[in-house]
Write a structure and sequence with these properties.
single chain; 91 residues; mainly alpha; 64% helix; 0% strand
Length: 91
């Protein structure tokens, strides 16, 4: 017996799974764009800050978020530090 509804469901699920698996996680996408901002000795800590900013805990306060941006600025090469901003206004 051939059941078309099972095949359609499976095909739909596979299509969604394939699309999801090809997406680059946000933290990797950001890291790929700004990794050159940091020396090799600061890259692990910078990646940790980016991971936190991409997926902050529900209890994260605005001050904690801002402190992660400030940490990234401190870890960056001086020439790139101004490119890391907490607000759109440049602060």
């Amino acid at each position: 017996m051939f059941n078309i509804t099972n095949i359609q469901s499976t095909a739909r699920h596979q299509s969604i799974s394939n699309e999801a698996s090809t997406e680059v996680p946000l933290k990797e996408e950001i890291w790929n764009k700004i990794s050159a901002f940091f020396s090799s000795e600061h890259q692990v800590e910078a990646q940790s800050c980016i991971a936190y900013l991409c997926h902050p805990p529900e209890t994260a306060s605005p001050e904690e978020i801002k402190s992660k941006f400030e940490c990234l600025r401190m870890l960056a090469f001086p020439a790139y530090a101004d490119n890391i901003q907490y607000s759109r206004g440049g602060a």
